[in-house]
Specification:
With about 325 residues, this protein is an alpha/beta fold. The chain folds into two domains: about 5-215, Spore Coat Polysaccharide Biosynthesis Protein SpsA, Chain A; about 220-325. It has helices spanning about 15-25, 45-55, 70-80, 100-110, 145-150, 170-175, 185-195, 215-225, 225-245, 250-275, 280-290, 300-305, 310-325, and strands spanning about 5-10, 30-40, 60-65, 85-90, 95, 115-125, 140-145, 165-170, 200-210. Strands 1, 2, 3, 4, 5, 6, 7, 8 and 9 form a nine-stranded mixed sheet that branches. Helix 10 runs antiparallel to helix 11 (about 280-290). The longest helix is centred in the C-terminal third of the chain and has 25 residues, at about 250-275. The radius of gyration is 21 Å and the shape is globular. About 40% of the residues are buried.
Length: about 325
Amino acid sequence: MALIDIAIPNYCYGRYLEECVASISVQGVDDIRILIVDNASTDDSVAVARRLMKHDKRITLVARDKNLGHHASYNEGVDWAASKYFMLLCADDLLVEGCFARALTVLEKESDVSLACGAELVWHTTNPPPAIENRPDEPWRLLSSEAFTLERSLPSKVLFGGGAALVRTADLKRVGHFRTDVAFNEDLELYLRLSLNRRVAVTNAVHGIRRVHGANISAIFWRDFKRDLVETRQTFDSFFTRDAAAAPGVGGLRRRVYGNLGKRAYWSAISHIVRGQRAAGLELFKLAFELSPRLAVLPPLDYLMRMGDPMAHMRMRLAEALGRHTP
């Protein structure tokens, strides 16, 4: 049995596939298996995958004749997983060198940790690739399910994309598949389930790079912040109403999570309005008050302080507002 299984779902990302696999090969962990699940691509993805297979016997390809959707590809990887640890890495994303070794140090030491996740940089591909500067002594934080759930509703450098997380396969089999009724943030929803009665290891060291190139699903949400927040709330809804429904104190935790999402909507509303996007800003205010009615009378200054360099953030927004009114 291998130590790590990596499933790579792919649809028409042949141009990225070789670089994705190369980012696995440089990890310095040879005891791995790689499964490429191609979802009936219409580009050269299958040819690229077959060429990679010829050079690396650890790679297996599943090439579908029909597009079954991305959840089917994710779950084929879950069913296939048989090694001690598992990772889902989308074909257009990359791993940062050293991430396997770093995650294994905490997973091998702490048997009650279900997943180890590093930070994920977002790379808008119209810009040069991001520079990675990880400190060798970057610490791990071990979070309870409650602490992990609450942190996911707050601003964080750790974005929790699939390629930044290494999961204990026994825990993955316990919680089951990615849920097909969670259209976005399905990785976060799965990780919330993995955290129940376990711990999650989190570090600010960068483990993954997520490309934003216009053709991926996540690009839609970078352009529509309200939709991103609505989908995030639905992700938490799925967790709170099903798996965590009987957890002690779940009602209070749910209110705190929704309060944090409301604060995100509140400050995003102000940002949109000072940039001249009044209609979008008002919609975000409406969402903020729906999530947390107290925000209608009490501005969430505490949330602003969690943002990196809050004064710089406020100066930037003020400059945008003044710039719009300069003759």
